[in-house]
């Protein structure tokens, strides 16, 4: 009998991932001082123990104070964070996982009551729960936050991780720029798809130029605007065809991995039956890029993982909810 595909190693950038299972980024909401606590470290140790997780992508960490998405989110916005990240990197490596850190900026979804800063966004449309009218980002703001992404990547590298993943999905800042539902700009960052994805590309290039070639630069890409409980995609929103084109441009800019998920509305896809919700788009992306592709979306069984890999829908499979509910889930998958 041939070896199960889920057990096959995979080259991602300059590293080799030991198997095809991914622990996707899942916010713990357990960092009252925006640092990793012993409880969070134990949580990651438990989820990755036993060597079944080939690639762990650590929960989204904010790169600049005004980009904090919610209370108790972890910060990678200053050098004081590095020792905390180093502790986690050591745990993940002890458990046999390669590890990336997802770096993010919430943009218009941040709230001044949480950050203590004015809300910056792609435009002036309120996007957060408080209904605050944000300040539209200037090109100077965009360039500053691009530098923040690059500086955060340097900290992640110094802490001993193999790479970073830019958060470009789920309605956060980069997703706000990519979606025509929120991006009504008339400058170089609005209008055409090439303009709406410009921020992504500049951030990828800035990270690559700062950390060098021996570091993985991934992007979690919100490939289409799928409203919850409604037919998709959302009228006037980002289409899957545009998502595929954006993925190609991200690879050309230097991305080593495209991690496929939902766009402006988050991780659900109401108009898609069953599980493995994004595999139709990840399949199309995999046909157009040469770098590895990861996919998520209510994937729950070993059979699903193997089928996704066999059908060429993706190279890596992430299962957030299954792993959250059962810390031994990945061990069971590789043993099936």
Gist?
The protein is of the alpha/beta class and 336 residues long. It is built from 12 helices and 12 strands. It is globular and about 50 Å long.
Architecture blueprint of SSEs:
Layout: E1 10-12, E2 15-17, E3 21-23, H1 38-48, E4 55-62, H2 82-94, E5 98-104, H3 112-115, E6 120-121, E7 135-136, H4 139-158, E8 163-168, H5 173-178, H6 193-196, H7 198-211, E9 216-222, H8 240-253, E10 257-261, H9 279-288, E11 293-295, H10 302-310, E12 316-318, H11 320-325, H12 329-335
Parallel strand pairs: 3-4, 3-12, 4-5, 5-8, 6-7, 8-9, 9-10, 10-11, 11-12
Antiparallel strand pairs: 1-2
Helix pairs in contact: 1-2, 4-7, 8-9
Q: Supply Rg.
A: 18 Å
**Strand fraction band?**
15-25%
Helix content: 25-40%
**What would the principal axes of the Cα set say about the shape?**
globular
Strand order, main sheet: write it out. Answer: 3-4-5-8-9-10-11-12
Number of helices: 12
Please state the average pLDDT score: 95
Largest sheet: 8 strands, parallel, barrel
Question: What is the total tally of β strands?
Answer: 12
How many angstroms does the end-to-end distance come to? 13 Å
Unreliable stretches, pLDDT < 50, 5 or more residues? none
Structural class: alpha/beta
Elements, N to C (H/E): EEEHEHEHEEHEHHHEHEHEHEHH
């Amino acid at each position: 009998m041939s070896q199960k595909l889920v057990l096959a190693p995979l080259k991602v950038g300059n590293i080799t991932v030991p198997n095809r299972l991914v622990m996707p980024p899942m916010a713990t909401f357990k960092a009252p001082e925006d640092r990793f606590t012993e409880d969070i470290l134990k949580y990651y140790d438990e989820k990755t123990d036993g060597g079944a997780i080939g690639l762990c992508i650590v929960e989204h960490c904010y790169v600049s104070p005004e980009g904090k998405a919610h209370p108790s989110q972890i910060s990678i916005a200053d050098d004081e964070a590095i020792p905390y990240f180093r502790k986690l990197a050591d745990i993940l490596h002890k458990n046999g996982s390669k590890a990336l850190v997802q770096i993010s900026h919430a943009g218009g979804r941040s709230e001044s009551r949480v950050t203590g800063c004015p809300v910056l966004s792609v435009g002036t449309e309120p996007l957060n729960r408080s209904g605050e009218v944000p300040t539209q980002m200037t090109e100077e703001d965009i360039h500053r936050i691009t530098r923040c992404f690059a500086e955060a990547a340097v900290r992640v590298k110094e802490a001993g991780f193999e790479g970073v993943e830019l958060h470009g999905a789920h309605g956060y800042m980069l997703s706000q720029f990519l979606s025509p539902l929120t991006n009504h700009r008339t400058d170089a960052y609005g209008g055409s798809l090439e303009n709406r994805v410009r921020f992504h590309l500049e951030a990828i290039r800035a990270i690559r130029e700062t950390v060098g070639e021996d570091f993985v630069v991934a992007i979690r890409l919100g490939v289409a605007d799928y409203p919850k409980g409604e037919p998709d995609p959302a009228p006037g929103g980002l289409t899957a065809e545009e998502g595929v084109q954006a993925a190609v441009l991200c690879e050309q800019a230097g991305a080593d991995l495209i991690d496929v998920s939902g766009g402006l509305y988050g991780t659900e896809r109401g108009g898609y039956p069953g599980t493995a919700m994004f595999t139709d788009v990840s399949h199309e992306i995999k046909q157009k890029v040469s770098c590895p592709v990861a996919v998520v979306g209510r994937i729950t069984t070993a059979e699903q993982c193997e089928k996704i890999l066999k059908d060429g829908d993706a190279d890596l499979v992430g299962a957030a909810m299954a792993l959250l509910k059962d810390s031994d889930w990945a061990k069971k998958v590789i043993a099936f």
